[in-house]
Design goal:
D-Maltodextrin-Binding Protein, domain 2, 2 domains, 6-stranded mixed β-sheet, 10 helices, 13 strands, globular
């Protein structure tokens, strides 16, 4: 195995504590799959598309929405981290719909004409599941006065906390990780609901290097590695296990999108 290969851990790393915990997990993983230490451990905290398409990628971490819409030609799901946080259940997770803590808003219907913050247009947790929830309520184009793209869930929470936006959908795992280290920020927002469940953010591998045997070996090694790290690291991540997944597990993400399109609410605006 080439020493130039690297692991890209671009999700669920909002602070140095979580980065250190992921480092510990992947250090153990590498020691298990490469006992002769031919593979130099490189962990990149980046999940952008260019990194995920890099020919030296060993394992990446991405959102299910871009996986199903843009990256299927390049990447194959390996497994999903399973977290013990409110809103998550096994391999499934939800988004928390948040509003300013002092707001009188109690439902998505009351957000009509307000400003919505999203982390990105290609996000399942920040855009797709919220678009679906609004489409179910009969929302139509220009439901909001403004759609503000923040670039990340942390920035979206900050925007809502400052009442610069009145609604955002936040991945429940990210929400908990931020709450652990920044409770004052979380105290400035309030949850008014949750999205439908979809399969969690997958660890992926290049399709060109995929085999069923390799996948099974790596998932087993990830779980063995997780069991070896100090309990404090597992607690920091709220990480329970890794569960094998297939591309079909992410079909529901596209079904949510299809429902919104068929309902006439193609864009979250």
């Amino acid at each position: 195995m080439s020493e130039d290969r690297f692991i890209a851990c671009g999700m669920y790393t909002p602070n140095q504590d979580t980065r250190n915990a992921w480092q510990a997990v992947f250090d153990q993983f590498i020691s298990l799959i490469d006992a002769d230490s031919n593979l130099r451990q490189q962990l990149v905290f980046d999940g952008n598309e260019a990194v995920l398409r890099d020919r030296d990628l060993l394992i990446g971490h991405t959102c299910g929405y871009p996986l199903m819409t843009r990256l299927q030609d390049t990447l194959t799901p390996l497994c999903v981290p399973c977290f013990d946080v409110p809103g998550a259940s096994g391999k499934y997770y939800t988004s928390q719909f948040i509003v300013p803590a002092g707001s009188a808003i109690e439902s998505l219907r009351q957000c009509r004409g307000k400003i919505v913050a999203i982390n990105g247009e290609d996000s399942n947790s920040g855009m797709n599941v919220l678009r679906h929830a609004l489409a179910k309520l009969g929302a139509r184009p220009h439901y909001f006065s403004e759609t503000r793209i923040t670039g990340g869930h942390h920035a979206s929470i900050e925007a809502v906390a400052a009442n610069q936006a009145q609604l955002a959908a936040i991945d429940c795992v990210t929400y908990q990780l931020i709450a652990d280290r920044n409770p004052d920020l979380i105290a400035a927002v309030r949850i008014i609901g949750q999205s439908e469940q979809t399969c969690g953010l997958p660890l992926v591998m290049p399709t060109a290097s995929y085999s069923r045997q390799l996948k099974n070996t790596w998932v087993a090694a990830l779980n063995q590695g997780l069991a070896r790290v100090p309990s404090a690291a597992r607690k920091t991540l709220h990480l329970e296990r890794f569960e094998s997944v297939e591309a079909n597990d992410y079909r529901s993400i596209l079904e949510l999108e299809e429902f919104a399109l068929e309902s006439g609410y193609a864009e979250l605006n």
